[in-house]
Amino acid sequence: MSDQENTAYRVLARKYRPATFEDLIGQAPMVQTLTNAFKLGRIAQAYMLTGVRGVGKTTTARILARALNYEVPAAEGRDAIHAPTIDMPELGVHCTPIIESRHVDVIEMDAASHTSINDIREIIEASRYKPASARYKVYIIDEVHMLSTAAFNGLLKTLEEPPAHVKFIFATTEIRKVPVTVLSRCQRFDLRRIDADTMISYLKNIAGQEDVSIAEDALRLLARASEGSARDALSLMDQAIAHGAVKGSGEIGEEDLRDMLGLADRARIIDLFELVMSGKIAEALAEFNEQYNSGADPMAVLSDMAEFCHLLTRLKAAPDVADQGALSPREKERGAELSARLSMRVLSSTWQILLRGLQEVAQAPKPLAAADMVLVRLAYAADLPSPDEALKQLKGQAGTSSGQGAAAAAGSGASQGASPGASKGAASLQASRTMPVTTSGGAHLRAVAAAPRHEAEPASASSEPMQQPAPELLRDELPQPQSLADIAALASEKRDLPLKFAVERYMRPVRFEIGRIEVAIISGAPAGITGDLGKKLSEWTGRRWMVSVVQAEGAATLQQQAEAEQAKKLAEVRSHPLVAAALEVFPGARIVEVIDRDINHKDSNEQD
């Protein structure tokens, strides 16, 4: 049986599993902290190891258990070691059983299959007894976040005050699922992803030990595909060795790995990206079809394009990132070239389209057809002019007569049905607001109607002339509103937004005089609004105001007036030649809102 075990093949991830802290790669901060803690004798009762898959959580737990129980008898030329230590130059008394996960005092438990309180109860009962042979009884609980709530609660007391001979080491990939009460009782270490350069050196070293020749580009591709996981990198390398070469002969190239992983050639991905960004949709579809016939998966192609778009964006924002990561010289060169040619706006929209396209391809019954449509959409969006360029083109086509039409279409008066004096206030409600008109192609166009502001008119909802107050009652330094619109503007100036909202939405003007207001109230108005309005007006204007509610229809509210005026402006702007031309150029576009702008419109021909 032992001979069979010795001759059985061991995968690289197990064969090269680190046995000491010096063998761990990419985890220098954790190793430094533990080294200092062991030297100072500040050894915690519980450790929490977290990180993504394959970065060495369980391996670190075993190494830590070995360090806690490290013991070497005295021999010729060396002293005995009978204390916890990080430095383990040789195998100690307990090292081999701990590494092979068969030591009686180092208990490993998979929380995914031992989730109940009964499993934790067994640990609590067994922890009372001293270790059989080692210095500490160590409990390694993997995927600890899988424990039930009752199991976590049952562990809390023992975890906070364990016996002196007991240590806990937890490992998890879902640290957010671990209760805070457990985390607060542990020393937490976040194991990092292994960076590309470190991973390439690590894989190159293992390839040398395995007597396998792997090209530099192939190692770079392995490092990128592993996403910082050492176990994933070694598993892929194991597969690549079986796929691409026989031990001792030949070289595993990048092409071998791409065939194995179903990836397209990186250079061809860049070619495809450049064709799409150039708007050459026919050539782009032909290139994509050739990659598909060569075995490339549509999802993988779009994913690689999104990754390259992300690289270009990073190069655009921070050129120094070209020296980081597993990038080939060719990728750096072409990436720098394309990032200089493409604007940040184009790269951002391309990223959004590719992300949405990946979802569509994943859900589509025919991924190839869905990917084709994503490429068409990208080429179409890339070929569209920018908003500024589109406006300049449309203005050039429309000519001077269109400019005159714009002024005529936008220069509308106050809406019908609005009470006199309310037009100025209603217009002020629409000032300083702009909304984009979005096309299906991804471009954006802002439609702004230039219209002169309406002149304020004397306010009176009745047929009787407004009575002018005596000159001695006027106070020039205080405001004297002439309409409900003026009152709403005054409330906004005084930062009384609830009052402004109530005046605009719930009050229909019936009669307005200085010091006296008659209104009709719409249902839903706040209680006591008229009394509050009179009190605030008296305070703001320095004169007494009477606000009374009458049983009359009254004019439209300020909000209704504003909505009617806006609807009228939208209808007028739609018929404007310049806007009509824009709607034809950008199918699917719509006008959301029109704002007023002060202009002194005069045609250049008239000036001449």
The gross shape turns out to be flat
Radius of gyration: 38 Å
Average pLDDT number: 78
Side by side, the strands of the main sheet go 2-3-4-1-5
Task: Summarize this structure as a short list of keywords or feature phrases.
alpha/beta; three-stranded mixed beta sheet; 608 residues; five-stranded parallel beta sheet; disordered C terminus; Rossmann fold; single chain
Characterise this structure.
- The protein is of the alpha/beta class.
- The protein has 5 domains: 2-190, Rossmann fold (3-Layer(aba) Sandwich), CATH 3.40.50.300; 196-261, Helicase, Ruva Protein, domain 3, CATH 1.10.8; 266-383, Zinc Finger, Delta Prime, domain 3 (Up-down Bundle); 389-454 and 561-607, no CATH class; 471-554, GMP Synthetase, Chain A, domain 3 (2-Layer Sandwich).
- Helix content is 50%, strand content 8%.
- The chain contains 26 helices and 10 strands.
- It has helices at 2-7, 12-15, 28-40, 57-68, 95-99, 117-126, 149-160, 180-183, 196-209, 216-226, 230-244, 254-261, 266-277, 281-293, 298-317, 329-341, 344-363, 367-383, 387-410, 423-429, 484-493, 497-506, 529-541, 558-574, 577-585, 604-607; strands at 46-50, 106-110, 137-142, 166-172, 187-190, 436-438, 444-446, 507-513, 516-521, 546-549.
- The strands form 3 sheets. The protein has a 5-stranded parallel β-sheet with strand order 2-3-4-1-5, with helices on one face.
- Helix 21 (484-493) runs antiparallel to helix 22.
- The longest helix has 24 residues, at 387-410.
- It is flat and about 110 Å long.
